[in-house]
Amino acid sequence: MTDRQHCIADFRETARRRLPRFVFDFIDGGSGTENTLAENRSALDRIRLLGSAPTDVSSCSQAVSLFGQNYDMPILIGPTGLAGAAWPRGDKELARAAAAHNIPFVMSTAATATMEEVAVSGSGTKWFQLYIFKDRAVSKRLVSKARSLGFGALEVTVDNAIPGRRLRDARNGFSLPFRWTPAKLASLAAHPGWSLQTALAGPPRLEVMAAELGLEKADTIAELMQAQLDPSVDWEDIKWVRDAWDGPLIVKGVLDPGQVSKAWDIGVDGLVISNHGGRQLDGAIATIDILPEFRAEAGSKLTLLVDSGFRTGSDIARALALGADAVQIGRATLYALACGGEESVSRALSILKSELTVAQMLMGARTINDFGPSMVRCHPAPGTFEPVSAAAGARRRAGPLSLVTESRQGALP
Ligand SMILES: Cc1cc2nc3c(=O)[nH]c(=O)nc-3n(C[C@H](O)[C@H](O)[C@H](O)COP(=O)(O)O)c2cc1C
Fold first, then answer.
1. Does some domain include residue 360?
2. How many structural domains are present in the chain?
């Protein structure tokens, strides 16, 4: 099946056909009007790349170092809950594929495998994504477990004070555990491959949360999260995690560059600029549009990861040019997972790598550090293309943190 897919859009289409609708929609959907889901794509598409021929690109590298570890490319598989709905034991398959490509895999708190299982899936680096639960003792236990199992970094997700309203899930009657309505049973019959596989493996369970919280059933995953997540979480709680975890600490789900100095002050090492793939705040800004401001605020002090909407190597080149150290992937590898488990995910990663190679060579970036804002143009208004301000987009600005007061003209809209 895997040789039929030549880009992430092909994997998405195969996943759409293979998965029952309520599962595909859970993965594919966004919140509210899905305005941000769409904007993540259109913002990336608005940015144009400058080919820089002729440049000697006979020798190129995608090697990147994150928190002192060397990886083969500036891509991470980000945390996605309920991956087992796409493929049995999906988290383990994702971890193994990431290991084969020497990139980090970020395990979700809402994983469908245990932390012990994921820790030994493939020989690669695993990070753990933490939710701060109302019961802090649970989160603290997860932090200790992540440390003892050798997870290399912690990503604390902060954009879940309240779950986004995911209308596709509501309309499809998406529930945990799955509740078999006539519509869902009809969908099962229409997708025998997935149905048989899931019947043999057993329905996916949120293993980490079930072990710690003894989950009751919930009508939607959003309701489940709402019952457990704490809307009072603020920077004091991140400080609390900082004190409990001595490895690299990353805060995931920020969109306001004003948060950079707060993160820095309490010893956070990195940020994931994310709108949760358009699944939380409907109407949120596309992450590629705000990335240059984050880089201008952070200078060289914080590692900046970005996600939401990235589907091609050219998208990743855009993020690198505008100041990201690496890009986290959400749905792209989930679509692939649904098509054929680890093998398909590995192939999707190879495709992204090849696409990035093409972009990199044609843009004249011999190494990842050669990407810069001068390599892109964008148009804030239809038909108007302007250069991105070099100061706003500079990947690494030396010196102390500075509040950017310069004119926003020329920066991304
Ligand atoms: C099905 C699904 C489940 C997700 N579960 C989590 C999660 O458990 N924790 C988390 O921090 N983010 C979660 N996310 C958000 C992703 O980590 C990431 O921010 C988002 O998918 C990036 O957008 P993209 O899918 O367009 O690449 C999930 C996303 C999807 C699509």
1. yes
2. 1
